[in-house]
## 1
Amino acid sequence: MKVHAVTVCPDRVDVVVGVDGAQMMRTSSVPGLAERVLEILPTLEKHLCDNPAGRPFAEELADTEIPHLFEHVVMEIMALAGSPRTLRGQTRWDFRRDGRGVFRVSVEYDDDLVCLGSIKLADQVMQHLLGAAEAPDVATETARLRSLRKLAAS
Ligand SMILES: [Zn+2]
């Protein structure tokens, strides 16, 4: 999974994400991924998710699009960094328009710096889950993001 572009809009941040190969598009294609993401971010299990099947995210997690998981990881990191849990995210795709494996993830934000930092950290978490990088130190990094918010507010 690769982040191609990040655009800050007044009400949300848009992230264009690319996934290589049909077999890499779903969480179910990566053995153990659902369990490993919950070890890093246990509170993901409680996420609400507006998916067509109406499934809770804890179930959805086992078999969904990799960029949809990325969206939830971004929202969770933002929440851990102090953003309200009422903020929403969305993952859409139109392969005919954008090309195969290209997804558009949109996340609402309260603090743009915290949002951009959360996207970067979520990307590191995904790279780790997909076997391409060491695990980031989520606790330390979210604490750093939280302190960014305090600085901006003072
Ligand atoms: Zn969702």
Note: The mean pLDDT is 92.
## 2
Amino acid sequence: MKFICDAMLGKLAKYLRILGLDAEYASNPAILDRYKGEAEPPYFLTKRLKGITYPKAVFIKSDRPRDQLLEVKEIIRPFINREKIMNRCIECNVELADICKSDIEQYVPEFVFHQYSLFRICPQCRKVYWEGSHAVHMGDLIREIMET
Ligand SMILES: [Zn+2]
């Protein structure tokens, strides 16, 4: 399932990517025309109430990204695959690829290189990720989404 976040929800899109979900950020809702007639059209998460005729639009009330994420908890939960959590580039919405530790030494801070052994890279922007690099406190948030 794909999720499309409107221009006001850039941070929410990043949270969804951390959870492994395919979350596109769309500054123009006209992008939704692309999905008309599809068997499984994406959800459109939006802060705009007026002028939205898209059937799978979800209105987001909160201005705080964490609360926004909790608002869509019930919708997103069935699509979260635990093995895919933190397996997507926060910036590009692309799935990460495994990379050898020896290939990334010059791209990460020295303490990170020595402290971690598993690294992954975004095939698009070449950003290197390691365990814990996505966001601090994400563990609590994931538990909140998955278990309550
Ligand atoms: Zn990237």
Note: The domain at 1-86 is CATH 3.40.50 (Rossmann fold).
